[in-house]
Design brief:
Number of helices: 12
Radius of gyration: 21 Å
GO molecular function, one term: lyase activity
InterPro entries: DgoD-like (IPR034593), Enolase-like_C_sf (IPR036849), Enolase-like_N (IPR029017), Enolase_C-like (IPR029065), Mandel_Rmase/mucon_lact_enz_CS (IPR018110), Mandelate_racemase_C (IPR013342), Mandelate_racemase_N_dom (IPR013341)
Strand content: 15-25%
Helix content: 25-40%
CATH architecture of the largest domain: Alpha-Beta Barrel
Oligomer: single chain
Largest sheet: 9 strands, mixed
CATH superfamily of the largest domain: Enolase-like C-terminal domain
Keywords: Lyase
Number of strands: 14
CATH topology of the largest domain: TIM Barrel
Pfam families: MR_MLE_C, MR_MLE_N
Shape: globular
CATH class of the largest domain: Alpha Beta
Length: about 400
């Protein structure tokens, strides 16, 4: 079998789909993307496919090595994301060729179902100015309303961003606002629902150590990406400041980039299978994490192909914890975000769990007609620019 052709489809503001074709009529799908940098990743895919077209797609590791290490300059979010999408498509092809789901190729499933969580929003910012917050009352009402939507879908785990655009060392009022938002959600959902917080790397090391002890009594599942990834050498300062489990990894792109944070004592690793070298590299990250007693909760704020790739790894990973998704999954999900699948039922999660996927490859059937129609309407998306009160850049 040989790879004969490929196509890229820009189908959503943050979704880029890749179709890889073979001379046996078997098609694989992947999702190579960096949110806000889609056209650049697409260009990288075009170049890297020179290593793949005309070759045997069953030689996944050989092709991965060629793509990842075949150039003098290696790594980074763009190249690794391009490799990730191609890698997903190759695993999809292999599974379809052999008639088995990808998790079977990874050693078989170690669990019968995968727990998922849903997002309930963030502290509101009305303009480009990060300090121009909504009122506490408005945010709490919004967070409680969206919490109820997720609970009605059968989910038992929720995540949100309780603070946007923080200063390096912020005011007592802002700190109290963070606590009050989280406390309001905890009071609303009760103790039987898990809560996770995402800080998007907006805290300084000093702010993280100042705030996290305040949140301990709220019994969070984990706090995600409290500081920027470039401070991985000092992540132990954050970990040691609180008993709340710390998670990170959505902006780390290889097992070597995870080395320092795994040693720091984090509880949860969050590689993105569309950024960190695909299924091939993320299974190695999972194995490395297991040696440090660290769980996996793959990052996935994008589309259905990326999520299907995550789920295949989740089923086969002993140290898996919980899976992110933004597709509105739950009981009876057949909404707008499912339009690119012929059959959405493999993602059914009426009790907050997706049952073992058994179809070959990634376990989903992409509706190519719907993809082609949407690709004609695609547009670019960029990270919104935020500013502090003094006009300096604020982390989004």
């Amino acid at each position: 079998m040989k790879v004969t052709n490929y196509e890229l489809f820009w189908v959503d503001r943050r979704w880029l789909f890749l179709k890889v074709e073979t001379d046996e009529g078997i098609t694989g799908w992947g999702e190579p993307i960096i949110e806000g940098k889609g056209p650049i990743v697409a260009a990288a895919v075009d170049e890297l496919m020179d290593h793949v077209v005309g070759r045997d797609p069953m030689q996944i590791e050989r092709l991965w090595q060629r793509m990842m290490k075949g150039g003098f300059y290696r790594g980074g979010p763009i190249l690794n994301s391009a490799v990730a999408g191609i890698d997903q498509a190759l695993w999809d092809i292999m599974g379809k060729k052999l008639g088995v789901p990808v998790h079977q190729l990874l050693g078989g499933h170690v669990r019968d179902r995968v727990r998922i969580y849903g997002h309930i929003g963030s502290a509101g910012v009305d303009t480009r100015y990060a300090y121009n917050y909504n009122s506490l009352e408005k945010d709490v009402a919004s967070l409680q309303a969206t919490s109820q939507k997720q609970l009605d879908r059968g989910l038992t785990a929720l995540k949100f961003v309780p603070a946007d655009g923080l200063e390096h060392i912020d005011t007592a009022e802002r700190l109290k606002g963070i606590y009050d938002r989280v406390a309001a959600v905890r009071e609303y959902v009760g103790d039987s629902v898990d809560i996770m917080l995402d800080f998007h790397g907006r805290f300084s090391l000093a702010m993280a150590r100042r705030v996290f002890p305040m949140l301990e009594e709220l019994n969070l599942m984990f706090i995600e990406e409290p500081v920027l990834p470039e401070y991985g050498d000092h992540f132990d300062l954050v970990v040691q400041s609180t008993s709340t489990p710390i998670a990170t990894g959505e902006r780390l792109f290889s097992r070597t980039e995870f080395a320092n944070v795994l040693r720091s004592g984090i509880a949860v690793a969050q590689p993105d299978l569309s950024h960190a070298g695909g299924i091939s590299e993320c299974r190695r990250i999972a194995a490395a994490a297991e040696t440090y007693n660290v769980n996996m909760a793959p990052h996935c704020p994008i589309g259905p192909i990326a999520l299907a790739s995550c789920l295949q790894l989740d089923f086969a990973t002993p140290n898996f914890l919980i899976q992110e998704q933004i597709l509105g999954l739950g009981h009876g999900n057949n909404g707008e975000l499912m339009k690119f699948l012929v059959d959405w039922t493999p993602f059914e999660a009426k009790d907050g769990y997706i049952e073992l996927m058994t179809k070959p490859g990634l376990g989903i059937d992409v509706d190519e007609a719907a993809v082609r129609e949407a690709a004609n309407k695609g547009d670019r998306w960029a990270v919104p620019p935020w500013e502090h009160r003094d006009g300096s850049l604020s982390e989004w």
